[in-house]
Amino acid sequence: MRWRYLLFDLDGTLTDPMLGITRSVQYALRRFGIEVDDLRTLCRFIGPPLKESFRDFYGMDDEQAARAVALTREYFAPRGIFENRLYEGIPELLTELQAAGCMLAMATSKPEPFARQIAEHFHLADRFTLIGGATMDGTRTAKRDVVRHVLDALGVEDPTAAEAMPSAAVMIGDRRYDIEGAAAEGIASIGVLWGYGSLEELAAAGAGQIVGTIPELRALLL
Known about the structure:
The chain has about 220 residues and is an alpha/beta fold. The chain has 9 helices and 8 strands. It has a 6-stranded parallel beta sheet with strand order 5-4-1-6-7-8, with helices on both faces. A two-stranded antiparallel sheet has the order 2-3. Helix 7 (about 175-185) links the parallel strand 6 (about 170-175) and strand 7 (about 190). It is globular and about 50 Å long. It starts with a strand and ends with a helix.
């Protein structure tokens, strides 16, 4: 295998969460008097931390953004979390990677309890040695911090050594946040094109490799 530790993003990489996330954001914005009818315009919320997105896309201050995140979870926790689907071929890929001796971990900006619930819902939890994500209280939200948390929890040796880490661990994701978070912690990255980031976005972020299909990803990892 090329890398032993495989860190997977969740949204846009393992599953397509479009309906659940956009409807949750729509619900929150409505409480602020903002009506959004075309859910496709809210797809930009898929990937980055929610609080950051409310600030960047709707000009909210920190207090407003924190309230918007709480409102988003009002919809997401009981309903939106299940308005989600696995990308075809992902369960088989994870099973094969695990059988080959790879250590799989999830590294997502989604709150960790939600990520674990999604993994269990899709019967994927047993594929992962660790499911790592953001904290509900906002103390860990940036992708860099999530990647660092996962590497530390896995006990990966010397995570800042350039000669060690690129050959030991890789971050796999569909947005620039995944690529930038990996680079910040000194590990390799693979961008995938079946999610919500473009080829241009991933290339500009400095992805080490970019793949267009799950079979291409399998060939690269094995």
